Each structure stands twice: as structure tokens, then as C-alpha cells.
Amino acid sequence: MIKEYKLLSEYNQLMNQRLYDSCSVLSDDTLHKDQGAFFKSIIGTLNHILVGDIIWLKRFSAHPTSKKVLSDIATIEKPKSLDSMLHTDFDKLRNERENVDKIITQWIESLSDKDIEGSLSYQNMAGQCFTKPYSSLINHLFLHQVHHRGQATTLLSQLGIDFGDTDLIELID
User: So what CATH class is 2-171?
Assistant: First the structure.
């Protein structure tokens, strides 16, 4: 299972890099323009992906197998809502994205199959408590990004920017 998460972590980092490279050619006005997406703009969508990652990494950091490797995530303020605009400046947002991607990669590298056998208890943003399989929540972290990156690439496509290949198969040996 960890081998698959390592693949997803590598894919995640590569796709985020490509996404930010594609967005870097856009003007600030275009990045912030409401295009009718769920998080309105490209910058809003990029912020939401980062918000989701920070929230989930903070939850994962409470698990005994992840406390040490995710200790840096404790220095990042927990977003107040799912549509929080952590950074309106694209370069600052990109730097934070790269930092969080490194944290995710280091965290996944530190885990073993045994580490993820149990469950994780957490509270959602509304304060409701849940306990779910740890491995399923890791899957959710990566699938959440895939979902919203798809929205961002659609917005880019509407602006005439061809994002290119997004298939995981590119990284599978």
C-alpha cells in the first residue's frame, strides 16, 4: 500500500508543479477572475486545494506514526474555512504549495504498511467527530487534489491554455 502512496505523492507533486507552471503565464487579474467555478477563480481553486491539504495534514499529525514527520505542519495556521484565501499573491501561494508538497512526500516516505493499518479520529470543520480507516483518509487526501486540479485545468482550458497530460500512467514503471 505504501508503494502506491509513494507513487501518488510523486504524481501529486508533479501535477501541482505543472499546474502552477501553467498558471504562471496568467495575469493577476485573470488568476482572480470569477469564472463561475465552485471556488470562483483559479486562485480560489488553488487556495482550496492547499486549504484541504493543510487541514488533513494537521489531522494526520495527531496520529502516533506521523507526529514527528508532520511537526512542521503545526507551524502553519489552520484555515478558518474551506474557501479561505491563504494567499492572494500567486508567488506566495506557489511557495506554500511547494512546501506542503515536500511535507507530504516526506510524510509518505516515513510511513510503513503497518503504520496505516489502524484508524484516525478527527473533527470536520463543523466540529463533528469521525473515526475512519487511516489508509482510506490518505486516499482521500490525494483524490481531493485530483478532483480540484481537474477543475483548475478546465478553467485553464477555457482560457486557451493546454495543460497537457494528467494521466498517472506516465509515472508507472
Answer: mainly alpha
